[in-house]
Amino acid sequence: MSKRRLATILAVDVVGYSRMMEQEPSDVLTALNAIFHSIVKPQVEEAEGRIVKLLGDGALIEFASAYDALTCAVSIQEQMRSDLPPYTFREPIFLRIGIHAGDVLTEGSDIFGDGVNIAARLQAEADAGGVLLSRTVAGLAGGDLPFRLRGEGMRSLKNISTPVETLSIDFADEKLKLARRMTAESLEVRFCQSKDCQTLAWTSVGDGPPIVRAPAWISHLELMWRDPGLAHWLDSLSARRRLVYFDARGNGLSDWDMGGISFESLVDDLECVFDAAGVERSPILSNSQGCAIAAAFAVRAPERVTAIVMVGGYPLGRAKRGSSKDRERAKAQQAIMSAGWDDDYPSLRDLIAETIVPLASAEDRRRYADDMREMISPENLGRYREVLDNLDVSGLLSEIQAPCLVIHNKDDRMHPIEQGRKLAAGIPNAKFIALDSRNHNLTENDPCWPVAEREMHAFLSEHS
Question: Which of 154, 243, 278, 348 could staple 163 via S-S, CB 3.0–4.6 A?
Fold first, then answer.
């Protein structure tokens, strides 16, 4: 006979299980077996939980205490992040964990009901390497948790009639966050004059061989260090090199009173910062429209560019892509950005943050949306968008002599992967990598970030 009781349910699964099983099934099973016996099972036993069943690529676990379920989930994920994981596999393995507390029905050793269903749906929504839980679990666990929770908003879950308020575990390294804040506060900001007398703000961090970042999207030298799609790139590069970066004209700490803007002026500004920073030859890091700027500069001054890393780039602006839908979207975005950019409630900026870094936490996306207002005025943004929507470097690509690493995310909603392929196809010495992500700018919690980081440094070591 079925019995009903209150329980906290933890659902866990392996990210990318089907893909990995298609490629290396025996190695995957060996690695997962090691993870289960060395990490999952001991932590569940220590937290007095019960493994209800294994599901091939995951497990269903029951706890009497919400606090114990949460601390168990955190311990599992922290051990999975260890520098010495208990398995050997060619790529990092990530787990997703969802937790919910509610009534369950028991039949023998098995359990059923909404408590189980919601935990499973939360697990499917969790970030790779993350834990997503319902507000119910947080309330039952109490306020003395030894870790921080971040609000993730209301979520409509598949086959669940009522939206669920969700939170996630904040695994951010507090020491790293403090170090980034201190870096931002201690930057030595310098200024240089462009060819047409615009003031450009630039800085450099780190030691070693130089790398220059081309301007992309909008920016602010100091706020970049908490940008969810950029801070870890800056960290990674400045730990090995002297990273030179700047705010483009009309952006951040550069002069907002722009005399004029054109694609050629943006290329001129990159050259100006090369000169101001005393960089004779260097690789370039470029993102989004920065890829086109870097490409044009490499053609103009091939002796100064040793290599280019291009991430989420495009050779054709939206108005040049031959699609009436793209052209209409370009016009609509220009109009709405000029009209609604500085609204007190950042609905437009929230939408853009969701498009650029959808895998960032809701808290990080909201802060990023707030920061955008400090980066550029609505008037300058409208002028920028007109230039970027009409750029076309497709005719220059074949002239690039520098080797290029072109990285693009398969489900990028800002610029489709076809644009990344066009970029790579037009460059004589280009390596193209497609990553299984929906971010435009890879976030630190994106399972593709370690892959991109590894490929970037290997490429730079070979070509600079």
Answer: 154
Partner residues linked to 111 by β-bridges: 106
CATH top class, domain 3-169: alpha beta
Report the C-alpha gap between 249 and 199 in whole angstroms: 7
For every residue of 204-240, DSSP letters joined together read EES-SSEEEEPP-SS--TTGGGG-TTTHHHHHHHHTT
H helix runs in 390-416, sequence order: none
Domain boundaries, the chain: 3-169, 174-463
CATH topology match: 3-169 vs 174-463 = no
Q: Which long-range contacts (CB under 8 A, 24 or more apart) does 299-305 make?
A: 299/396, 299/399, 299/400, 300/267, 300/271, 301/271, 302/400, 302/401, 302/402, 304/274, 304/279, 304/280, 305/281, 305/402
Burial annotation 155-170 (CB, 10 A radius, 16+ → b, else e): bebeebeeebebbbbb
CA dihedral 240, 276, 299, 301 (to 10 degrees): -100
Ramachandran assignment for 160, one of left (phi > 0), alpha (psi -120 to 50 degrees), beta (any other): beta
Q: By 3-state DSSP, what share of the chain in percent is helix, strand and coil, each rounded to 5?
A: 40, 20, 35
- Mention every residue, 6+ apart, whose C-beta is less than 8 A from residue 414: 288, 312, 355, 356, 440
In tens digits, the chain (464 residues) has pLDDT values of 568 889 999 999 999 898 889 888 999 999 999 999 999 999 999 999 999 998 878 999 999 999 999 999 999 999 998 878 888 888 888 999 999 999 898 888 888 988 899 999 999 999 888 999 999 999 999 888 888 888 888 999 888 889 999 999 988 777 888 899 999 999 999 999 999 999 999 999 999 999 999 998 899 999 999 999 999 999 999 999 999 999 999 999 999 998 789 999 999 999 999 999 999 999 999 999 999 999 999 999 999 999 999 999 999 998 898 777 777 777 777 677 766 788 877 778 888 999 999 988 888 999 999 999 999 998 898 888 889 999 999 999 999 999 999 999 999 989 999 999 999 999 999 999 999 899 999 998 888 898 899 999 999 999 97
Closest CA to 439 of 366, 371, 315, 354: 354
Assessment of whether the complete model's pTM goes beyond 0.90: no
